[in-house]
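Duplicate of #3305? Posting structure anyway:
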């Protein structure tokens, strides 16, 4: 692994794209081109989807490719930890990653998000249900927050989220799952996709997102998605 120039070329390319997206959105927010709220949601959505889109490049390298891919979210998460601990001072990035500009908040959503990507990459490599859970986390959660904040009129009493946000979660998750899973299958990374499991897992994740507090919804979205797909697989 350490001496494979092809693998590290792929790693460098994927890493540059993911880190470049994060820094690009940071720059847009710091110059006022987009709001910090929008930049945070775009980061939540685009960086993860871009990361997953690079999986076919790592696929031919087997287990080594899997671990090399996992280094990318691990490294980004480590930088967030450094930011949360105050080791790194970056006010524009902190403003983009947190709702309140508090360092402690970085340990909630952003680090939770990154660790989920590391864990699922290693534990669910080439598993369509795991990839679908990540896509749902990226697309569904970000769009639920965006649509819910802007158009949410029918709000839930327990956490302030909205029915409009939940519907956006379902529709966007299904659309992005259909697009990216099809791409990964066409590229040879995925060999089997159960669309029934994908649909059920998205619906389960939407319920988890609707009922969960924002501080832990990332984990509950992925967990409920994987649990639902596993239950369907066992029932068939």
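Output from current build:
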């Amino acid at each position: 692994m350490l001496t494979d120039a092809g693998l590290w070329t792929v790693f460098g390319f994927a890493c540059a794209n993911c880190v470049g997206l994060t820094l690009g959105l940071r720059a847009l927010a710091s110059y006022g081109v987009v709001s910090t709220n929008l930049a945070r949601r775009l980061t939540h959505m685009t960086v993860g989807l871009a990361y997953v889109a690079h999986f076919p490049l790592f696929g031919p390298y087997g287990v080594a490719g899997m671990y090399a891919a996992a280094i990318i979210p691990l490294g980004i998460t480590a930088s967030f930890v450094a930011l949360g601990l105050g080791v790194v001072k970056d006010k524009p990035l902190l403003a983009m990653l947190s709702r309140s500009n508090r360092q402690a908040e970085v340990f909630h959503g952003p680090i939770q998000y990154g660790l989920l990507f590391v864990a699922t990459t290693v534990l669910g490599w080439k598993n369509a249900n795991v990839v679908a859970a990540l896509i749902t986390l990226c697309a569904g959660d970000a769009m639920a927050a965006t649509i819910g904040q802007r158009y949410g009129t029918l709000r839930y009493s327990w956490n302030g989220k909205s029915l409009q946000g939940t519907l956006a979660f379902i529709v966007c998750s299904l659309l992005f799952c259909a697009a990216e899973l099809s791409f990964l299958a066409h590229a040879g990374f995925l060999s089997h996709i159960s669309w029934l499991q994908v649909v059920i897992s998205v619906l389960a994740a939407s319920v988890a997102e609707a009922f969960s507090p924002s501080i832990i919804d990332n984990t509950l979205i992925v967990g409920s998605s994987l649990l639902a797909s596993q239950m369907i697989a066992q029932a068939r």
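Confirmed duplicate; merging threads. The mean pLDDT is 92. Residues 137 and 221 are 6 Å apart (CA to CA).
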